[in-house]
Amino acid sequence: ICKQGSFASHIMYICKGLVKIYMENEYDSLVLKILPENKMIGLSSLYESNTVFQYSAQAYRDSVVNLIDINIFRKLIRQNAEFASEVINILCENAIQTYGRFFCFTKKQSFGRMADILLCLSCRIFNQDEFELDLSRKELADLSGLSAERTIRILKKFKDDKLIEINNKTFKILEREKLQEISNHG
């Protein structure tokens, strides 16, 4: 959808789909977050001194994205206080999410990270306890900052402990409170 370091001429609105936001260098990449439909990509490019995307975005599933010219978007912000307030709210929400991800990566152990990711997917991305996850186990591992092998073992443990059900790509949260406790205690 967009490539880190490329010229940012548009803000993108996800009409349909599921999108991975990530940063990369020549050796590795880090998944920052997943965006569902009705979210925007590229708001960090609104900063007047910034002309490039600070991250890449890739569709996990078939997606429809509307492009909004960045100059028109900036003009709307300057001329419409209510619109500007909504954009500020979105940017603040993004910052809070980023702080949470940073804390999770640096302070939580593997079980806490996976519980955190599953709860985030359930509550923030799909808004339901049962959801189809179009991510491979490797992609889920990348999202949680774990190895694929460790991710598979943790998912099996959560399944054996009846905290979740997994059927192919369908996940179901069975014990939200226990997952939250694991996430809280890292």
Explain what you see:
The chain is α+β, with helices and mostly antiparallel strands and 186 residues long. The chain is built from six helices and nine strands; from the N terminus they run ββββββαααβααββα. The strands form three sheets. Strands 4-1-6 form a three-stranded antiparallel beta sheet. Helix 1 packs across helix 2, helix 3 crosses helix 6 and helix 4 crosses helix 5. The longest helix is centred in the middle third of the chain and has 27 residues. The mean pLDDT is 90.
Map the helices and strands.
Blueprint: E1 10-16, E2 18-24, E3 29-36, E4 40-41, E5 56-59, E6 64-69, H1 70-79, H2 81-107, H3 110-125, E7 130-132, H4 137-144, H5 148-160, E8 164-167, E9 170-173, H6 176-185
Antiparallel strand pairs: 1-4, 1-6, 2-3, 2-5, 7-9, 8-9
Helix pairs in contact: 1-2, 3-6, 4-5
Query: Which sequence of strands runs across the widest sheet?
Result: 4-1-6
Query: What's the average pLDDT?
Result: 90
Unreliable stretches covering 5 or more consecutive residues:
none
- The structure class reads alpha+beta
Distance between the termini: 33 Å
Following the backbone from N to C, one meets helices and strands in this order, namely: EEEEEEHHHEHHEEH
Helix content: 40-55%
Give the total of beta strands: 9
Over the alpha carbons, how many angstroms does the gyration radius reach? Answer: 18 Å
Estimate the strand proportion.
Answer: 15-25%
